[in-house]
Design a protein that fits this description.
Blueprint lengths: L6 H4 E3 H9 L8 E6 L17 E6 L16 H14 L9 E6 L1 H15 L7 E5 L11 H5 L8 H12 L4 H4 L2 H20 L11 E6 L7 H5 L9 E6 L10 H15 L3
Parallel strand pairs: 2-3, 2-4, 4-5, 5-6, 6-7
Antiparallel strand pairs: 1-3
Length: about 270
């Protein structure tokens, strides 16, 4: 018997969920955004992007929400493979709506692999690959606090990971001060981070244009670390910085959507 998750479990249609809650009719979107969340987060991280004219889908990693009981993925490549298969099987896959593949932090590595698989294995056209807030594989990581938090057998590891999260911002203080919530969050986060830090390769380049994003006050990744992603695309490269730290995107939703649409259109037909 296959242990692979059903496509609906690793791909969450956030736009459809929003329509069900609000009772709004569906309409043809002008943009479809396939989103890969950061370490420790679920597909719902991207709910802020939902608008009636933008189709937003989130990749759901194992170990959270509908996949709570599943073990952590073995690799970034494994996460990308199952997401690519789900996208290829989706009813909307043969579509003229521009497809943007977007990943934030750990999700940037998943997004790069996912876009490459969609183009080279499944023959899909990716209009834009967007990588945010993560240095490319091979860039030296000197974050000692993060490394200290990755060993679950070290009695100081949880404290180190909480301090690392607090420094990044984006996690409510109510969560960081709640032992019960941390008991659920930290093992998932630690597993994701170990998978992310073990990822040491760039995928086969895509032809889609590349958009590189970072927060102006993000101490975890600099412009050079983002620029190291350049080989993942043979197309044009665009760069944007948004005011904020490691998680600036939700505060700049309208600008982000405008940048996605503009950069996808700039790539032109192939």
């Amino acid at each position: 018997m296959s242990t692979r998750p059903a496509p609906g479990r690793c791909l969450v249609d956030l736009s459809a969920q929003d329509r069900l809650r609000g009772g709004a009719p569906g309409r043809t979107p002008r943009l479809r955004v396939l989103c890969c969340p950061p370490a420790g987060a679920a597909a719902g991280y991207w709910r802020f992007l939902v608008r009636e004219d933008v189709h937003v889908l989130g990749v759901q990693y194992p170990g959270r929400e509908s996949r709570f009981r599943e073990p952590a993925a073995a690799s970034i490549e494994a996460l990308a493979r199952e997401a690519a298969e789900a996208v290829a099987a989706a009813a909307w896959a043969p579509s003229a709506v521009p497809l943007v593949v977007l990943g934030h932090s750990m999700g940037a590595a998943v997004a790069a692999e996912l876009a490459s698989l969609l183009e080279h294995r499944h023959g899909a056209r990716v209009a834009l690959l967007v990588l945010s807030a993560k240095a490319a594989p091979g860039v030296v990581d000197d974050d000692e606090l993060l490394r200290a938090g990755l060993d679950p057998h070290d009695p100081r590891a949880d404290d180190a990971l909480v301090r690392w999260l607090r420094g990044l911002g984006g996690t409510p203080e109510a969560v960081l001060e709640n032992p019960e919530l941390l008991a659920l969050l930290l093992p998932v986060l630690r597993a994701d981070l170990r998978t992310s830090t073990a990822h040491d390769r760039l995928p086969v380049p895509v032809r889609a244009p590349l958009l590189l994003l970072r927060g102006t006050q993000d101490a975890g990744v600099d412009a050079a670390g983002m620029e190291a992603w350049r080989p993942v695309s043979s197309g044009p490269v665009h760069r944007r910085e948004y005011a904020g730290g490691h998680h600036p995107l939700a505060d700049h939703r309208d600008r982000l959507l405008a940048d996605l649409e503009a950069c996808a259109a700039a790539g032109g037909p192939r």
